[in-house]
Specification:
Layout (H helix, E strand, L loop, with lengths): L4 E6 L8 H10 L3 E5 L2 E6 L7 E3 L7 H9 L5 E4 L11 H11 L3 E4 L4 E4 L6 E3 L5 H13 L3 E3 L12 H13 L3
Parallel strand pairs: 4-5, 8-9
Antiparallel strand pairs: 1-3, 2-3, 5-7, 6-7
């Protein structure tokens, strides 16, 4: 969605995770989703649509959804995630501050965020000790030059070598690889 292209990932036929909700959320932002036996293919052309989403069952996706919403072509509403105020950080407050610091317009609601996209500029993104916040900044950095994450090392919680993997992925994309 952010950079255009295609992602192919292993995808279980059955899972206790809320996978279909994640695919629906990506589709709401404009991704073309194709589920194949054991795989999912997500395609995008760089255009991101604003979305109105209840993320209650996929609240871990909320920081990435906020990043997508900040890059969208129209406003977005992310709902059902009041409880993420109590995660590694108050994610709603951190996302609001992060998006606004880069020039976007984000405001907390009782159970989520409203985000109105505006042209963003580079700047320091505070991960707040939260790996999901760093993931959101990494996505924004695909489109917005000059985004720096104050502590990319927090991503080790879920992917120990995230900084190296991300650098490799970005350099491959820049080289057309």
């Amino acid at each position: 969605l952010v950079a255009g292209g295609e992602v192919v990932a292993d995808w279980p036929a059955q899972s206790v995770q809320p996978g279909p909700e994640l695919l629906d959320a990506l589709a709401a932002f404009g991704a073309d989703i194709e589920v194949r036996p054991g795989r999912v293919v997500a395609r995008g052309d760089g255009a991101i649509a604003g979305a109105d989403l209840d993320l209650g069952r996929i609240s871990e996706f909320a920081p990435v959804a906020a990043a997508l919403a900040a890059l969208a072509d129209s406003p977005s509403r992310l709902r059902g995630v009041a409880h993420i105020r109590g995660h590694e950080t108050d994610r709603l407050a951190a996302l609001e501050a992060g998006v606004n610091a880069l020039g976007g317009v984000a405001a907390q609601t009782a159970d989520g965020l409203r985000i109105t996209p505006r042209p963003l500029q580079g700047g320091l993104w505070h991960a707040c000790g939260d790996h999901r916040m760093a993931h959101a900044a990494a996505l924004l950095g695909l489109r917005v030059p000059g985004i720096e994450v104050d502590d990319i090392g927090v991503t080790a919680k879920t992917i120990a070598d995230f900084p190296d993997r991300w650098a490799s992925l970005v350099s491959q994309g820049a080289a057309g690889g």
